[in-house]
Design a protein that fits this description.
With 276 residues, this protein is of the alpha/beta class. It is built from ten helices and nine strands. Strands 3-4-5-6-7-8-9 form a seven-stranded parallel beta sheet. A two-stranded antiparallel ribbon has the order 1-2. The radius of gyration is 18 Å and the shape is globular. The N and C termini lie far apart (43 Å). Bound molecules: adenosine-2'-5'-diphosphate.
């Protein structure tokens, strides 16, 4: 018998360290700091999102903090992720600054944003941030299977999460399998291909068949793989649409058709190109 990685309500995932991450989150990459980011995050919280994903590199942690305070939603009800910008030297000093900007005393998840300068140098600082109580869980982002093994080799604890570019068109099956084998939860960023996948013919056909939108189909494809997913939108009606993914199912055939869209060759790599 395999133990379900999901929480009892089916809307969250239990991480290897015992903490729980909601399967649906709002991603705020490319959301402009200030009124745009504050209203985007406030709408999401009003519409029931309880998971917000930001990063030091996005420059909008302060706005996320403002939205959280203004929303009146208790801090402990919201799962907050931020990411260490690996151009900085020290994950501990950097998260102290994040906490000040977010106006919280801890984040739920702190990730190395990408493996700049190698996969392992920042990991001791990430573990230290966790020991100090600054982050409940720590993990990585944009790490390949090989890089995951490097971190696991040097660490006291393994990364709880590897957040990567993942969708039916970037299926990266071998990396998903590698994460599973190492009890690392794969989390999907750019689940809509930054909007590009919404016009895909097969995605649209499946959407018509199930009576849902292309965005909902792409997000549901992740959820059905127990993969937490963080779509970005700055439009209230789309934020609402993207949250309505727990009341329908894709059939095995739908899933197979979507799986076949993979353009990565089922790779165990996280990225086709690096940007650093
Ligand atoms: P916008 O922010 O203007 O609403 P990803 O999550 O893969 O990064 O994709 C984000 C992109 O997809 C953004 O350009 C966003 O536009 C767009 N988007 C997000 N949700 C929807 C939706 N439900 N319908 C159409 N476009 C969407």
């Amino acid at each position: 018998m395999t133990i379900s990685p999901l929480t009892a309500d089916g809307r969250g995932r239990v991480l290897a360290d015992g903490n729980q991450i909601p399967l649906l989150g709002l991603g705020v990459w490319q959301v402009t700091s200030g009124p745009e980011c504050v209203s985007t995050v406030r709408w999401a919280l009003e519409l029931g999102y309880r998971h917000i994903d930001t990063a030091q590199a996005y420059g909008n942690e302060e706005s996320v903090g403002t939205a959280l305070l203004e929303s009146g939603v208790p801090r402990d009800d919201v799962f907050i992720t931020t990411k260490f910008f690996p151009g900085d030297p020290d994950p501990v000093a950097a998260v102290e600054e994040s906490l000040r900007r977010l106006r919280v005393d801890h984040v739920d998840l702190y990730l190395i944003h990408w493996p700049q300068g190698g996969a392992t140098w920042a990991w001791p600082g990430m573990e230290r941030a966790r020991e100090l109580g600054y982050a409940r869980s720590v993990g990585v982002s944009n790490f390949s299977a090989t890089q995951l093994d490097e971190v696991i080799g040097v660490g006291t604890i393994a990364p709880a999460v590897n957040q990567i570019n993942f969708s039916s068109l970037q299926y990266r099956k071998a990396l998903l399998e590698a994460c599973k084998q190492r009890s690392v939860a794969l989390e999907a960023y750019s689940p809509l291909g930054t909007g590009r996948h919404l016009g895909n013919q097969t995605v649209r056909l499946v959407a018509d068949r199930v009576g849902r939108t292309p965005a909902q189909v792409l997000l549901r494809w992740c959820i059905q793989r127990d993969v937490p997913v963080i779509p970005k939108s700055t439009h209230r009606e789309r934020i609402e649409e993207n949250a309505d993914i727990f009341s329908f199912q894709l059939s095995d055939e739908d899933m197979r058709e979507l799986d076949a869209l993979d353009e990565t060759g089922g790779t165990d790599r996280a990225l086709e190109h690096t940007w650093w």
